[in-house]
Amino acid sequence: MFTRCPNCRQQQSLTVDQLRLSGAIVSCRQCSIKFDALELLSETATEDTGNIPQTVVLPWEQQPRNPYWLLGTVIGIVLLLAQIVYFEGNAAIAQNVRLRPRLESICQHLGCRLPDYKNPDELILKGALMPSNDHYAFMVAINNQAAFAQAYPNIKLTLLGYNGSPFTHRIFYPQEYAAEIMQTSPLINAGATLTVQLDIAATKNHMGGYTFDTLN
Predict the structure, then answer these.
(1) Which of 83, 104, 127, 132 could form a disulfide with 140 if both were Cys (CB 3.0 to 4.6 A apart)?
(2) At residue 114, does pLDDT exceed 90?
(3) In terms of pTM, does the model score above 0.85?
(4) pLDDT higher than threshold 50 for residue 35
């Protein structure tokens, strides 16, 4: 008698004793897959393979489905994202405007906190430097045009001579100009405007102009 492997279609001969001893479950000599020889058993060798299935998965070869597999996969992905954000700190992934809302939602469920959003290009500064008695008063308004609350920026003020060349500068840090405000509002909310006054001492050089900008 003859049977044919459903996987590689290799035909092989069998005896009645072989079928009885193996319970009709045989192993293909070519691809080693086990299959039920009775399903494709014939008394003569044949080249007809038109109705032979490509693969036959036996009951004991089927992988059991764990009902918690999908849930475990989702939890694993969420934890992986949380670890990336936690260990990367101020990495670009936490500053990405498309990913950040999803990351914030994940952190709300996991109890974590994203690094403060920082993009100085979305902070618009408007100000004026005016003499006041024996010093200068630097009035500046900071508008956060980002979609997220931002940390208070460092502000660099540069004084220029009459020829336009800088002769001195000073960097104002948030602890200097917004210490009291930061106690109640640690970040500048999206769309909010903060107005502060910064005092600087008068210089010996004659000032012909000034520039100011935010720093990371």
Answers:
(1) 127
(2) no
(3) no
(4) yes
